[in-house]
Design brief:
The structure is a single chain. The chain is built from 14 helices and 11 strands. It is an alpha+beta fold. Among the domains are: 64 residues, no CATH class; 131 residues, Phosphorylase Kinase, domain 1 (2-Layer Sandwich), CATH 3.30.200; 133 residues, Orthogonal Bundle (Transferase(Phosphotransferase), domain 1). The chain has a 5-stranded antiparallel beta sheet with strand order 3-4-5-7-6, with helices on both faces. It has a two-stranded antiparallel ribbon with strand order 1-2. A two-stranded antiparallel sheet has the order 8-9. A hairpin with a 2-residue loop joins strand 10 and strand 11. Helix 11 crosses helix 13 and helix 12 crosses helix 13. The chain starts with a helix and ends in a 22-residue tail after the last helix. Interacts with CASP10. Interacts with IRF3; RIOK3 probably mediates the interaction of TBK1 with IRF3. Associated with 40S pre-ribosomal particles. Keywords: Antiviral defense, ATP-binding, Cytoplasm, Immunity, Innate immunity, Kinase, Magnesium, Metal-binding, Nucleotide-binding, Phosphoprotein, Ribosome biogenesis, Serine/threonine-protein kinase, Transferase. GO terms for molecular function: ATP binding; metal ion binding; protein serine kinase activity; protein serine/threonine kinase activity. It holds the Pfam family RIO1.
Length: 512
Amino acid sequence: MDQIGLATETPKSPWGQAAPAVAPACSLNDVMSEQLARQLEEEEGPFPSLADPTADLLLSDEVGDTSSDDLMLAQMLQMQFDREFDDQLRREEKKFNGDSKVSISFENFRMVHPYEDSESSEDEVDWQDTRHDPYRADKPQATPRRGFSGKGKNITTKHDDEVTCGRKNTARMDNFAPEVHVGDGLGMDLKLSNQVFNSLKQHCYSEQRRSARLHEKKEHSTSEQAVDSRTRLLMYKMVNAGVLEKINGCISTGKESVVFHADGGSLEEQPVPDEVVLKVFKTTLNEFKNRDRYIKDDYRFKDRFSKLNPRKIIRLWAEKEMHNLCRMKKAQIPCPEAVLLKKHILVMSFIGKDHVPAPKLKDVLLSGEDMKNAFYQVLQMMQTLYQECNLVHADLSEYNMLWFEGKVWLIDVSQSVEPTHPHGLEFLFRDCKNVSTFFQKKDVAEAMNPYELFNAVSGLKIPIGVEDEADFVSEIVALEKRNEDHVQRRGKKTFPVESEDGGPPLKPGVDD
């Protein structure tokens, strides 16, 4: 019994007893799942051998499907790469062109696929290839650069062939300015003759010059109550330098200037009044085209006038008024006092009080006695201006005379000239007509007629027996002509005045 028991006893393994294979635990739902059952069947099924003919068919089909999938995948990757390349090219083009009006396109470097989906994004639609656009019109060929076509006896130049010449003129319209809209003449096969093309070219050139003039006039002009940037800069500099405390605004506008009111500051050379005016001469030249004769024949500025451009002549006009005001102030004629001249801006004392300018003589209401006193004041000022200041106002009227503190003040003497001016006496007679007409309308009995007033101011004794203005003016012109001839011979300017005893002519104010 013991031997049999020993013989049947299983020897022990040095590694211990092996764990029995235990099947994995599955739930009832997993066991009943058909999907799990099919999966287990496939796993437990034998692998097909190479000798099985069905296995060869299966392998061949799978290999074929795999090769087609690889080709499609490669094409898709290539298309994606090309899209990224086009996007990078578009960014480079945008960076290269920037805001330039002339742009450079990298369209020739794009990757265009014939099988690319037409229903792409908006960016791809904008970037569609236009080199083979079926809707693009075929533009006819113009004359080659060399100017002729053909060889030998068959040479045809642009002058011989009207059709070729017309097409070339149409192509040359692209060289016009960008603001000229010429359209697509080549696409319509438009043929322009030389006459039409030259007319269009001249019109475009004229429009460019006109546009440039309008732009310059707008940028560098002083008109009405507006001043240009240069003038504003000069006015700001006066305020910063302390010459002016502040500029209050415009108080008057005229044909040749704009007047601003300002509070005075201080200067090292002379004191500045509490209230001043800035007379800004307009830099538009329209009003000065017919006013050159006031300054070009004035011997004080004659040499400088011929060497200046029109804009510098306006500065000369301001300088002339400053000199005339200084003469009048020295002769104690009531007028503004010149304070400072800066290019075409003249700073003068203000005629008025508390920011209220003095009224013009045409606007003030005076009694009969005051109006008579005003006439005698004007007569005395005209005589003093002519005899002591050696000046003729040349634009004297009720518009250029102010009434302030019971006195008449003269303003606007920029056009004033000396009596020796070639037209000085004519200007004086015109002033006398304006003054006489105004005071006669105001019922001033003592007001002289223009002829008597002219002789009283000038000291000349031109006969006034015939009341004809034309005869009187002819006498004045003849007198100016004789004086001009005398200047050419002697080099001096004198106006002859007949002496009482019938002797030789004398200069005004010279005793025997």
